[in-house]
Design a protein that fits this description.
The protein is α/β, with parallel strands linked by helices. It has 14 helices and 15 strands.
Length: about 425
């Protein structure tokens, strides 16, 4: 009784195998695909025919085999066939990016959200507006593209398949179905909408970006970032491990001081109370600037002061480095992560964080240098979250090419009279 479903599942997996091979090794001939995937040639021929029908693959010229055989027809991906939308919510703005299957950016925009504290509907309305604008831009430039997915990256733990935002402390939310709110704002959007954790997406993107630069990652990698707030992620063998409730890697609310300041999460002395945007701006004497110009402008001013050698700014970062070091010790003790990647402004301001960070880690390094995690710094900056959201959507499509419908037929040219 299960044969039809099993057969469809096998076909889907084999289509994914062929598509992933061409993504990694193409252009290539059918014989090369068969050899590379282990599938028989006749099966590859049938699978390629379906991928061509869906517009994901096309024949792109021929190459001689060097013998007497017929020239081989090369196959290549059609990156413009699929477009992914990724949106990121920061403390003051919504950022959106549309990119094709290869990651070529087709549209990028940002808009301030001015969302009232504790009101997710107001934020969902802004997300809907910037996504509609992005979709219109994509439809104008690539009208035949298949809009595969919208991923909305939000701060706070995202729970399993329900995708509930369990809590967005910086925004004053409790459990919120952001996906339902965004979907209601986009009734004409003909693609799935997913809500993902912003730090998990950034962790994934930085992991792959560093690997592309030659970093050999261990099997367990932790990620800590600070920008909108303080968050993190945990990667096991290159995959995000979110835990039982979506909380794995929520490092911003790791208590590092028993008698520290009260945190909105209900605990005391959380890491976010020491290296988050508001505590850093306060320590650097930039509260008045933030109140007048906004948090993002104040962080830019803090960057300017750091580079100018301002004593208050430098001292604030050194103190933050000590707090960050305490969190690194806690994370490495619990997860035994072989590497900890620092992202967001923790990477941008590594020069000023290092003295405090190294001082806090010195004792453990001296005791067991071989057991201490490697500390690396992210390379993607503000791009990390959107890039990670895009990569997650792209991987989902590579895993299931049948999610892309049959491509519309090419228009037939009308002969001149």
């Amino acid at each position: 009784m299960n044969a039809p479903a099993d057969s469809a599942d096998v076909r889907r997996r084999n289509l994914a195998l062929v598509l992933r091979y061409l993504d990694a090794h193409g252009p290539g001939a059918r014989t090369e695909v068969a050899a590379g995937t282990g599938l028989v040639h006749a099966t590859v021929t049938a699978l390629v025919a379906e991928l061509i029908e869906r517009g994901l693959v096309r024949e792109a010229g021929t190459v001689t085999s060097g013998g007497r055989g017929r020239p081989r027809r090369l196959l290549r991906l059609v990156p413009e066939r699929v477009v992914v939308l990724a949106a990121q919510v920061s403390l003051e703005s919504v950022h959106v990016m549309a990119a094709d299957f290869r990651g070529r950016v087709l549209h990028r925009a940002s808009a301030p959200h001015h969302a009232p504290y504790g009101d997710p509907r107001a934020l969902a309305a802004v997300i809907g507006r910037v996504v509609r604008s992005a979709e219109a831009a994509v439809r104008e430039t690539t009208p035949d593209a298949h809009l595969a997915q919208l991923a909305v990256a939000m701060a706070g733990p995202v729970v399993g398949t329900s995708q509930l935002v369990a809590a967005a402390i910086d925004f004053g939310w409790r459990a919120t179905d952001l996906r339902a709110l965004v979907t209601a704002e986009l009734p004409l959007l003909d693609c799935p909408v997913d809500v993902v954790n912003d730090a998990n997406m950034a962790a994934l993107a930085e992991y792959h970006a560093l690997a592309a630069e030659g970093v050999e990652h261990p099997d367990t990698v932790a990620y800590i970032k600070a920008d909108t707030g303080v968050g993190g992620g945990l990667l096991v063998n290159g995959r995000v491990h979110s835990g039982s409730h979506g909380m794995a890697g929520e490092i911003g609310h790791l208590p590092i001081a028993l008698d520290g300041p009260d945190c909105l999460c209900g605990a005391r002395g959380c890491l976010a109370m020491y290296i988050g945007p508001e505590p850093l701006l306060h320590a650097a004497g930039l509260n008045p600037f933030a109140e007048a110009e906004g948090g993002e402008a104040a962080l830019a001013e803090l960057d300017r002061r750091l580079r100018a050698g301002n004593a208050d700014a430098v001292s604030a970062l050194e103190t933050a480095g000590h707090a960050l070091g305490a969190a690194v010790l806690g994370v490495s003790g619990v997860t035994d992560a072989g590497e900890i990647i620092l992202g967001g402004y923790l990477a941008t301001w590594a020069e000023w964080l290092r003295p405090g960070l190294d001082a806090r880690l010195a004792g453990r390094r001296a005791l067991a240098p071989d057991m201490h995690p490697l500390i690396t710094f992210g390379v993607l900056g503000a791009e990390a979250t959107l890039r990670g959201a895009f990569q997650t959507c792209r991987d989902a499509l590579l895993d299931d090419p049948t999610s892309v419908p049959v491509a519309p037929p090419a228009p037939v040219a009308t002969p001149l009279p």
